[in-house]
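sry for the spam today, last one i promise. struct tokens for design, 271 residues
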């Protein structure tokens, strides 16, 4: 059983788990994990964000926040509530994978975000490559049963797909993936695998970046098995700065934490 890593606050009647690291005087960052993750997904990055005040949140349906499942807009409202409780504004919102949707929604609606960082997320699913059979997880009852009874080796296999080929998924990361899987509300599967596909097709992230007009950094992994770095041109055309990490897959925050931290810290400190 995972221990509580931070604090809890009530937002809209929901108990939300979050953690704050770093000096209150530092550049404020909020780190938003992806689908099936938790605030622990940034454990390797946070110690490297020296001088920053770093807020991490377990999204609804994830980690110690647990259920209920929610789409990116509702997740953003909850994150905004946490930032309000902490009295933070001028925040750099960093979103990994599904967390990128949440970061953009937060920037569009809260007024507390000054900059956005998108990590390892394409604008939509138009050329994505996902594991076969993922649609089964979106089916009522079937998806819940598959999630509940998934053996540890299957969870480890999914975790291995989320990193670059050849990257060693050690015992600590495998345990984290298993803990995160067990904490995940099964209602997140249709939200991310089905509803999100439709949402991104109608309003891709690069369009939202262009319309938002805030300074945006996009960090892509060249060896991302889901998306690759094929969307670099689309984000550049939308006005974002794009950095591609050659050796990283879908999870640069665990594969190349030093490089990611350097990029985030420099971007957050720009005038």
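last one done:
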């Amino acid at each position: 059983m995972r221990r509580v890593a931070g604090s809890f606050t009530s937002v809209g009647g929901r108990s939300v788990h979050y953690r704050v690291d770093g000096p209150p005087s530092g550049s404020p960052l909020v780190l938003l994990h992806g689908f099936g993750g938790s605030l622990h997904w940034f454990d390797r990055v946070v110690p490297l964000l020296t001088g920053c005040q770093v807020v991490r949140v377990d999204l609804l349906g994830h980690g110690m926040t647990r259920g209920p499942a929610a789409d990116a807009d509702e997740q953003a409202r909850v994150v905004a509530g946490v930032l309000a409780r902490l009295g933070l504004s001028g925040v750099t919102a960093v979103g990994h994978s599904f967390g990128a949707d949440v970061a953009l929604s937060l920037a569009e609606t809260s007024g507390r975000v000054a900059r956005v960082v998108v990590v390892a997320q394409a604008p939509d699913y138009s050329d994505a490559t996902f594991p076969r059979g993922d649609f089964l997880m979106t089916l009522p009852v079937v998806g819940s049963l598959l999630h509940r009874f998934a053996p540890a080796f299957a969870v480890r296999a999914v975790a291995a797909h989320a990193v670059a080929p050849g990257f060693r998924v050690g015992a600590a990361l495998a345990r984290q993936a298993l803990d995160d899987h067990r904490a995940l509300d099964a209602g997140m599967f249709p939200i991310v695998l089905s509803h999100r596909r439709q949402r991104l097709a109608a309003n891709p992230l690069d369009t939202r970046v262009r319309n938002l007009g805030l300074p945006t950094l996009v960090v892509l992994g060249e060896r991302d098995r889901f998306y690759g770095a094929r969307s670099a041109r689309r984000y550049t055309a939308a006005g974002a700065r794009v950095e591609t990490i050659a050796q990283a897959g879908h999870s640069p925050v665990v594969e190349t934490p030093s490089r990611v931290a350097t990029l985030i810290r420099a971007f957050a400190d720009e005038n």
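The beta strands are 7-11, 14-21, 27-32, 52-57, 91-96, 113-119, 216-221, 241-245. ok im logging off now
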